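If you are new to this repository, start here. Below is one unmodified record pulled from the training split, so you can see the exact layout before writing a loader.
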Amino acid sequence: MSKGDQSGFMSSAQQMKEDLGPALCLAKWKQVSLHLPTGVNNSCYHPPLHPISADDLQRPGGIHNTEHKKQQRMMMMRGEKPKECQYCWNMEDLGKLSDRHYRSGEAWAAVDFEKIKNSVGNEDDVVPSYVEVNFNHACNLKCSYCSPQFSSSWGEEIERHGAYPTSKPHNAPEHFVGNRKPIPVREDNPYVDAFWQWWPTLYPELVHFRMTGGEPLMDRNTYRVFDYVLENPNPNLHLNVTSNFSVEDQLFKKYISYVKRLCTPDIEHFMQYVSLDSGVPAQAEYIRHGLDYGRMANNVNEFLTDIPHRNSLTFIITMNNLTVTGLPALLKWILELRKAHSATYQRVWFDTPVLREPAWQSLQILPESYATQLERSRDFMLSNMVTDTNPLHGFKDYEVQRLERDIAWMREGQSKDNSLAKADFHRFFNEHDRRRGTDFVKAFPEMRSWWAECEYHARQL
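And here is the target side for that same chain:
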């Protein structure tokens, strides 16, 4: 992305701030995240997931155009702010551009701005252009902030050991029953069936299609999508996959062979998302239990080296309270990768979405000194910005702004009484260490004082 493109990205978000009014967000129409193992969806990752009803399943495209979502659209058309979108309202109250401005300003959404702003809000036939789908919850990792709904490995652990002993028992087996229990991949899934019935209508309209998990490299539906795309080229399609990039070598070889065939003029672009929350190997492996950092790093380099055409790689850095001290090392690696692999266009990206739940892993419960550490990471980015003569090997202004947004959100919550969340932090990770044979202080020696503070609250509450 050139400096001009960066300016365009920011100016479109600024323009949408003016055009959208107090409540409208185009993502409610043009974007959807589908979690098919449990039959729920949301318009982006900020609102809570809501169920796809039996009636929704009967309508073509009803897995996106749910009755719930149509109600939220109508509220927006009346200028009312849906409560489920509170994260964006909070950002705007802090004077920041929110994700509704960024998302609505992107071409895949903005193209239908005039049509949407003149709509009623309850139409049935909206075909989204940005779709994320989780076909099943099979996963080889047990990330600290995840749950059995998104990880079969987590499910196996709680079936064996039960809930974590936080103030409200965390990931309790009895919670994951009924429609909260993921449908096993070996069983028929009506939501997956509904997706594939909708797919021929959806596919021609897609601009971005992203497969998440679970771990999509372990899912047969991923390769079914790949086969369909290879047989039905779509030169407008941005095809995206999110992975931990730490699967068995033979499976990774299969995946890479597909991606090589896909990265041709038959699609516009292939984006590989890699989930990673620290540049310190021991800390990354602690946060995302089961991760093999060396394997992941090798696979990142293989992807960037062996797939030279029509592709990029984005690190998804979920900003939680275990990310702060390892972020500088990760930013330095990203800078090195940009210098090594971005010759004619930017191939290495990253995003810093903030984690809000579980509360004990939130940035907001950390002491002030950790916000200062994040500001030092921001200053590192500012000292290594792109320039007119070096447009590919530095950081972008909007990347800095996103981190500043995270810092603002962090500081906004630090004035609250976070004693219970601190107590739960110790309860959770103390049990984490017992079950998984890990050692928090060994992985995060620089957080020893914080650990002791949380232990004090755990004993008091």
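Two things worth knowing about this chain: The radius of gyration is 22 Å. The first helix runs from residue 3 to 19.
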